[in-house]
């Protein structure tokens, strides 16, 4: 472990929840446990937070971090399978990632169909679909119509 790390590095390396980390940091003393590293003309709130040795010790004890343990193998972007696209809000859809169904933000869910393979990425704690199948819109529309017809027949 280096002598000091930024809050962002700690959150990404150990997979800690950002909200909990920020709430815990607010209980610590600024200057003794953590400092803001001023960069350029940015306001203080926009500057990264750096934990001191003392602060890192408190973070490790609070979250039960194993320093010698390897970082979690949570690699993004990931491949996912679309499971539902028929929400009234066209900016969301459901996908299956690693056996779990997750809601994802997308530009337009009408361009996707259930069963399609898509690339999902994380941005600010939110899952987003990082691809837009504009060139395949006609193909997807045809498959979508066929899928909807089959659903009407079955159901």
Describe the structure.
This protein has four helices and seven strands; from the N terminus they run H-H-E-E-H-E-E-E-E-E-H. With 155 residues, it is α+β, with helices and mostly antiparallel strands. It folds into two domains: 7-63, Orthogonal Bundle (Multidrug-efflux Transporter Regulator, Chain: A, Domain 2); 78-154, OB fold (Dihydrolipoamide Acetyltransferase, E2P), CATH 2.40.50. The chain has a five-stranded antiparallel β-sheet, with no helix packed on it. The chain has a two-stranded antiparallel sheet with strand order 1-2. A hairpin with a 2-residue loop joins strand 4 and strand 5 (100-105). The mean pLDDT is 83.
Write the CATH architecture name of the largest domain.
Beta Barrel
The total tally of domains equals: 2
> What distance separates the N and C termini?
58 Å
Mean model confidence by pLDDT? 83
Structural class, please? alpha+beta
Number of strands: 7
Order of helices and strands: HHEEHEEEEEH
CATH class of the largest domain: Mainly Beta
In terms of per-residue confidence, which ranges show pLDDT below 50 for 5 or more consecutive residues? none
Number of helices: 4
Radius of gyration: 21 Å
CATH fold annotation of the largest domain: OB fold (Dihydrolipoamide Acetyltransferase, E2P)
- Trace the largest sheet across and list its strands: 5-4-3-6-7
Relative helix content: 25-40%
The rough form would be described as elongated
Which percent range describes the beta-strand content?
Answer: 15-25%
């Amino acid at each position: 472990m280096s002598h000091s790390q930024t809050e962002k590095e700690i959150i990404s390396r150990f997979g800690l929840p950002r909200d909990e980390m920020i709430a815990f940091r607010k209980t610590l003393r600024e200057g003794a446990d953590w400092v803001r590293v001023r960069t350029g003309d940015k306001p203080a709130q926009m500057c990264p937070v750096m934990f001191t040795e003392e602060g890192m010790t408190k973070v490790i004890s609070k979250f039960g971090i194993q320093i010698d343990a390897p970082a979690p193998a949570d690699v993004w972007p990931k491949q996912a399978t679309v499971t539902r696209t028929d929400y009234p809000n066209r900016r969301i859809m459901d996908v299956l990632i690693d056996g779990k169904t997750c809601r994802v933000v997308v530009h337009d869910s009408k361009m996707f169909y259930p069963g399609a393979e898509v690339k999902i990425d994380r941005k600010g704690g939110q899952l987003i679909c990082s691809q837009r199948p504009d060139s395949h819109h006609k193909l997807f529309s045809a498959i979508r119509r066929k899928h909807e017809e089959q659903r009407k027949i079955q159901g």
